[in-house]
Amino acid sequence: MEAWIQQLLTWLALPQFGLSTVFIVALISATLLPLGSEPAVAGLLHLNPDLFWQAILVATAGNTLGGAISWWTGALARTAWYKARSLRHVGVDPAGPSQPPAPPNKQSRHQRMARIWLRKFGAKACLLSWLPIVGDPLCAVAGWLRLPFWPCVFYMAVGKFLRYLVMTATILHFWPS
């Protein structure tokens, strides 16, 4: 198993694959798919410490683009939800006649608080998009709430850049070459 991991790290360190792999892994990990980009960044930097700033910037760009995709996913989901709701309101069930009616739209106390909090802080709330578990859905909720796209992307980029900078520096400090 250790030989396989070493081979994977060697492959990631190749100049033609290293940074592009970090970009793709960072992009995918910023969507709602469960994947972490930290091992790819740390593995690349363990083998090529001279790529520190390039890896940080590439990972930030990929992760920010993934957050933007999540924002658009939330915005498009809102549009589809309101369209289905309006069709249901006029008596047309978009799911078809064989489907049971949709449950009433009730929000938990936590959902109401999150919505109030996001509306209060606006796009600045996307600074927290780097957080595990809640960061990726936060970007989608920002899109659902139609928070302004470019300010959200800017705050996502700042938060994700700081995360990669601190995380990578910490890993390299405790896991020296």
TrEMBL record:
Transmembrane helix is among the record's keywords: yes
Parts of the chain that traverse the membrane: 12-32, 52-77, 121-147, 153-175
Keyword line: Membrane, Transmembrane, Transmembrane helix
Signal sequence residues: none
Domain of life where this protein originates: Bacteria
InterPro entries: DedA_domain (IPR051311), VTT_dom (IPR032816)
VTT domain ranges (all copies): 52-168
UniProt-recorded name of the protein: DedA family protein
Organism: Comamonas koreensis
Classification of source organism: Bacteria, Pseudomonadati, Pseudomonadota, Betaproteobacteria, Burkholderiales
